[in-house]
Amino acid sequence: MSKYTDMAMERRSQFTPEGRPAWNCCQAVVTVFAEDARYDEEAAMRAATFFRGGMQMGSVCGAITGSLLALGLAGLDDAQTSNEVIRRVREKHDRMTECKDLLRVNAEKGGKKMPHCNAMIRECIGYVEDILREKGKIR
C-alpha cells in the first residue's frame, strides 16, 4: 500500500456515532491528495460531503468521483485524464461505474458493502497515483 491508501484506510476505520464511516468514499479519496495539491484538506472534505453513495442516489461511485476531484485539485483538466480513470474502472468492473450497480454485483457474489467500498477506494487511489506520477505531479 502507499501513503495515500494507508491514510484513506485509517480514515475509513473511524465511525460516526450512528455507525457510518466518518469519511465517505469520495472524501477518503480526494482528501488524501489535498495536501500535495496545496489545497485545504478540510475544504476538500466538505466539498466531497454529498458524493457518498453515488451522490446519495446510487449514481457514479464516490471513489470514482473522488478520483476526478483529486486530479482536478492537482491541476489536471483534460478529458483524456478523466477518461483514463473511467476507462480503468469500467475495464475492471464490467463497464459499471454506478454505485448501485457495483454494490448489487458485489452483493450477488456474497460480498459485504464496507470491504467492497474500501476496495474501490484503494483501486481509485491507485489510478490517481499512477496518473499523477505519469504527469509529474508526485514522485
Describe this structure in words.
There is one protein chain. The chain has 139 residues and is mainly alpha-helical. Helix content is 66%, strand content 0%. It contains eight helices and no strands. Helix 1 (3-12) packs antiparallel against helix 8, helix 2 (25-34) runs parallel beside helix 8 (113-134) and helix 5 (62-73) packs antiparallel against helix 6 (79-92). The chain is globular.
Sum this structure up briefly.
The chain has helices at 3-12, 25-34, 41-47, 52-58, 62-73, 79-92, 99-108, 113-134. By secondary structure, the protein is mostly helical.
Structural class by helix and strand composition: mainly alpha
> What helical percentage do the residues reach?
55-70%
Radius of gyration: 14 Å
Indicate the proportion of strand residues: under 5%
Average pLDDT figure? 96
In angstroms, what separates the terminal alpha carbons? 15 Å
For the sheet with most strands, the description reads: none
The number of strands is 0
Number of helices: 8
User: Shape from CA axes?
Assistant: globular
Order of helices and strands: HHHHHHHH
Poorly predicted regions = none
